[in-house]
Amino acid sequence: MKAEFINPFLAAAKNVLETMAQTKVNAGKPLLKEEPVTYGEITGIIGMASDKIEGTMVISFEKSCILKIVGNMLYEPPKSEIDDEIVDAVGELTNMICGGAKAELAKLNQKFDLATPTMVVGTGVAITVFSDAPTLIIPFDTENGKFVIEANLMEK
Amino acid sequence: MKAEFINPFLAAAKNVLETMAQTKVNAGKPLLKEEPVTYGEITGIIGMASDKIEGTMVISFEKSCILKIVGNMLYEPPKSEIDDEIVDAVGELTNMICGGAKAELAKLNQKFDLATPTMVVGTGVAITVFSDAPTLIIPFDTENGKFVIEANLMEK
User: Fold this and answer.
1) Which ipTM value was assigned to this complex?
2) Chain B partners within 8 Å of A112 (Cβ)
């Protein structure tokens, strides 16, 4: 994946979380994914596909981070555990962030449709993307913990 | 998802595993997914997308089952642990099975492109699809253990 294609994901994550969840987000320097990495307790995965492009975006949250984000989205105090409502919110955030990136990438002539998000709950989960194209990782910090986005986009 | 759309996934799984991995596969009765389910030690996830359709296919294997399948694919004795080669093989099987289903579904006027497969390794992992459409589960048995396919396909 070309480095210029990572910025739309970064911008969309900041935009969605700041407007939908009043959550200030600091993005670290994007890095190349070298091996399967174990991330947070809850992960959203969404496919991108067209006749010219295939890709996947993964977003994975530490528990404290997602509980606070969803609390903010609902104008409620954060819950103490990941439940169906949290899982659902991760699906919605995955859709919105990748949808935001999609709109920007279309302007760079990278056009694709989005598949259905899938959410994975569990600790000690290692995720690998099956692609010859490099996967880029953006680490993010919030006041209540970290999350990461991985993106992989390949012209066929 | 309409019940008739499940058969292409069932047929593709049988066909790919019988021809590529000399593995006899018995399919159980498809059932509706009612809640997040925890499956096997290794799971492949692949998105399906077009301007008219969105979906996801999930395939999850018990460890003993995938180790034997990959051993058969490579004409080698089964390994004892899940390693990079096994993870890669799950990506390839995910691609091939969903690719087989895609060809059949196109004949039913369900046309879409495939996203990049993602593989999740870990025990005690619960997977949820973020969709208003029902998700169908096909349980499979092999001589060396079980696997399941989940499919969700929705016209936009």
Assistant:
1) 0.94
2) 49, 113
